[in-house]
Design a protein that fits this description.
- With about 150 residues, the chain is mainly α.
- Helix content is about 45%, strand content about 5%.
- It has 5 helices and 3 strands, in the order H-H-H-E-H-E-H-E.
- The chain has a 3-stranded parallel β-sheet with strand order 1-2-3, with no helix packed on it.
- Strand 1, helix 4 and strand 2 form a beta-alpha-beta unit.
- Helix 2 packs antiparallel against helix 3 and helix 4 runs parallel beside helix 5.
- The longest helix has 21 residues.
- It is globular.
- It starts with a helix and ends in an 11-residue tail after the last strand.
Length: about 150
């Protein structure tokens, strides 16, 4: 924790140049984001097609949109799971979007509590996610609520 203020200062100093670089070169500009044909919305739309066609159509509109795939501590073999998603995305010529969500002490033990049991376990888990992505293209949103819980980390 004693290095945290210095780390935050370095990140804040890097943000303006990172923002300029991102604006100048968007690595996913023009790319198609992957739509999971087996998403919960797609399965529900299929299930309701004959009994509740209006609701099925609304769910179909949701299912037809790219959605991020949340990766957390509930996935038994994250490398294999990510590799399978990457293969499906590649087959559809689209880029999957993942949310990396397994930081230790997630949500300071609150509503979304969980995460890896240790920093070393988290590092192994992140390496497994990276191995699943391999050399493919993917978008990774890393720990979206971790900044709010820095005092717990």
């Amino acid at each position: 924790m004693r290095y945290l203020p210095a780390l935050i200062a370095c990140l804040l100093l890097a943000l303006p140049s990172a923002a300029v670089a991102a604006a100048a070169q968007n690595p996913i500009a023009g790319a198609r984001l992957w739509v999971d044909p087996d998403s919960q919305a797609a399965r529900d739309a299929q299930r309701l097609r004959s009994s509740r066609p209006n609701e099925s159509a609304l769910l179909g509109r949701i299912a037809d949109r790219p959605q991020a795939i949340w990766l957390g501590d509930g996935i038994e073999n994250v490398r294999r799971y990510v590799r399978r998603v990457m293969a499906r995305g590649s087959g559809d010529r689209a880029i999957p979007v993942f949310v990396i969500y397994n930081v230790p002490q997630r949500d300071c033990g609150g509503h979304s509590a969980g995460g890896a049991r240790s920093a070393a376990g988290y590092a192994r888990w992140v390496r497994a996610v990276a191995a699943g992505i391999g050399r493919g293209r993917a978008v990774a949103v890393v720990e979206p609520d971790a900044l709010a819980g820095l005092d717990c980390l």
